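WP5 quarterly update. Target: Serine protease 27-like. Source organism: Clarias magur. Length: 412 aa.
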Amino acid sequence: MLKFQCVVVVLVLYLEGSFSQLNVCGHAPFNSRIVGGQNSTPGAWPWQASLQSPSYGGHFCGGSLINDKYILTAAHCVNSISMSGLTVYLGKQTLSGSNPNQIVRGVTEVIIHPDYNSATLNNDIALLLLNSSVTFSGYITPVCLAGQGSTLSAGTNSWITGWGNTATGVQLASPGVLQEAMVPIVDTNVCNLLLGFGSITPNMVCAGYLQKGGTDTCQGDSGGPLVTKQGAAWIQTGITSWGIDCAQPYKPGVYTLLTPYRQWISTKITQNPPGFVTKRNPVTAYLGKVTFTGINSHQVTRRVEKVILHPKYNSTTKDNDIALLRLHASVTFSKYITPVCLAGLDSVLPENTISWVTGWGNVNSTVPSSSLQEAMVPILNEEICRYLLSPGILTTNMICAGYRNGGPRICQ
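Structure tokens (predicted):
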């Protein structure tokens, strides 16, 4: 017997992460130098971390909080570091003096990307496991991470933060206030020409001002975040990695691009995973719609403000192929717009159960439909479906429906 629970739900793609992390990540309630930058205000960048060690006399690299127990940083910062005395500061505004919102955590594990190359700095990414969980506040919040498929176009304004040198060989003046600066993304081909052909791999991204220079990350900023803003949320798109001198004309900074590492991060953080956000074109949801053309008198539209993919979605196998869209405003129900009920946890769906599929997909392999289509299909036996499809395609999170001799089915 099927048990149902009624909820309002829109299922799509475009955003990945755990529900708890996506609810809080990337929000900086107090946000209104790096080289050529300026002092930040307390709480402006609540994910910013300071990595400190007695071996370096204190601060040596930056990082970012991505959930309640993990810090994201550059591999070159921690590749040869001793965990003895390694500490992470969060909620910190100045390197010295009073920091009332500051907390300190030790590190129990350093996870370097297995393909990190210390010579080329390819795959310059690492995770730090903290010795105890962090309680979020207005001054300490995880950042959202760019999801697989995110695009970062040349000219996109991004922000860099850190306590590094303010010029080549010039340390940040006491008390060492956290610096911030805005830098535009630089075309990868242009960056390769400027810094040496082949030095910029597909796992890197460049940012900075080409002609005037003057604004850049520098020594001590390594491992810190490169972020962009999407709506109300800040999304980390890169990790400060390397550069030639600091803030020189035609020598942009180089950052580890985060989008290729979504799968690696997810395999390392299996509990309470970070919030991954895929930045693409805006999405609009239509309800009460029957045709793509002509009059739809009962139609309402809502802008999508957040898309949430299942954290274990696999784009290759399509396992866990489920997502949620949060609309920017509530929907008023009517006889043309009502929520669907969902099958409960212990529901069973026997073979040959008559089901219905609906959509505006192609009515054959190439011809799209302009009107909402409906079709009745029976549930197929799981073993028969496995036999009909290639071995290993069907997972325990999937079910098959249709006619073995062809007929109505869903299409592209």
